[in-house]
Design a protein that fits this description.
Helix content is about 80%, strand content about 0%. By secondary structure, it is mainly alpha-helical. Bound molecules: the ligand Cc1ncc(C[n+]2csc(CCO)c2C)c(N)n1. The site of the ligand Cc1ncc(C[n+]2csc(CCO)c2C)c(N)n1 has 12 residues, from helix 4, helix 5, helix 8 and helix 11. InterPro entries: Haem_Oase-like_multi-hlx, Thiaminase-2/PQQC, Thiaminase_II, Thiamine_Salvage_TenA.
C-alpha cells in the first residue's frame, strides 16, 4: 500500500492540473460575480448533456461491481445525479433555458471528450479505474464550492449563490467525502504500485477535461 491515502496520492501526482481545474479563471470570475451570463448559460446547457453521460457511468459502476456494497454505492450515485438533474433543470429555467432548449442542444466537443473518456476508462478497466475517472468531478466540486462559499456568505445577492450553495451544502460535502472513502476502500482491495502510472493518467486526464469544461464556458462568452 501507499503511505498517502490513494486519493491524496493521485491529487499530488496531478497537482498542477488539479490547481488549474479548481482555481480556473471561470471560477474566479464566478466568485467575483463578474462571470458573463453567456459563459454560465453555455456551462448549464453542456452540464445537462454531461449529466446524462455521467448517469450512464454510475450505471456502469453497478455493472462493474462484484459486491452489493459497491452496487448500492453505484445506485446512490445514480440517484444523486438524477436528482441533481432535476435541480439543474430548475436552475436552467431561472436562467431562461427551457427543457426543450436543453434537449435540442448539441454536445460540445469538450463534453463529448470528457464524458466518453470516463466511460471508456470504466469499460476498459475495473471499478477502481472508473471511480478514479469520476473522482475529479465529484470531489473537485466540493473543494471548489468550499473555496467560493465565503463570497456568497459576504453577499446573499450573489448572482451565482444558488450554484455555489448547492455544492457547499453539508449534504453535498458529505457525499464527496463518501466518494473519497470509496476510492480508499477500492484501493485497499485492488491497488498495487504497478497500477499507479495508469491510475495517475486516468485521474490527470479527467482533471484536464474538467478545466476544458470551464474553458468552454469562457470561450462561449467570447
Ligand atoms: C462538468 C461537471 N463536473 C462535475 C459536476 C458535479 N457532478 C456531476 S455528477 C455528480 C455526482 C452526483 O451528483 C457531481 C457532483 C458537474 N455537474 N459538472
Amino acid at each position: 500500500m501507499t503511505e498517502l491515502p490513494l486519493f491524496d496520492l493521485l491529487k499530488s501526482q496531478a497537482a498542477d492540473h488539479w490547481q488549474d481545474y479548481t482555481r480556473h479563471e471561470f471560477l474566479r470570475q464566478m466568485g467575483h460575480g463578474s462571470l458573463p451570463e453567456a459563459a454560465f448559460r453555455e456551462y448549464l446547457i453542456q452540464d445537462y448533456l454531461f449529466l446524462i453521460q455521467f448517469s450512464r457511468a454510475y450505471a456502469l459502476a453497478a455493472y462493474k461491481s462484484r459486491e452489493f456494497a459497491d452496487i448500492r454505492a453505484a445506485q446512490d450515485g445514480l440517484a444523486a445525479i438524477v436528482s441533481e438533474t432535476d435541480l439543474h433543470v430548475r436552475l436552467c429555467a431561472r436562467w431562461g433555458l427551457s427543457p426543450e432548449d436543453l434537449e435540442a442542444a448539441e454536445e460540445h466537443q469538450s463534453t463529448v471528450a470528457y464524458t466518453r473518456f470516463v466511460l471508456d476508462a470504466g469499460m476498459s478497466g475495473d471499478l477502481l479505474d472508473l471511480h478514479v475517472a469520476l473522482a475529479p468531478c465529484v470531489i473537485g466540486y466540493a473543494e471548489i464550492a468550499q473555496w467560493l462559499a465565503p463570497a456568497v456568505e459576504a453577499n446573499p445577492e450573489h448572482p451565482y449563490a444558488e450554484w455555489i450553495s448547492e455544492y457547499a451544502s453539508e449534504e453535498y460535502q458529505s457525499a464527496a467525502r463518501a466518494a473519497v472513502e470509496q476510492i480508499e476502500s477500492l484501493g485497499r482491495r485492488s491497488y498495487t504500485e504497478a497500477r499507479l502510472p495508469e491510475l495517475t493518467r486516468v485521474f490527470s486526464t479527467a482533471t484536464r477535461m474538467e478545466s476544458a469544461f470551464w474553458q468552454m464556458g469562457l470561450d462561449a462568452a467570447g
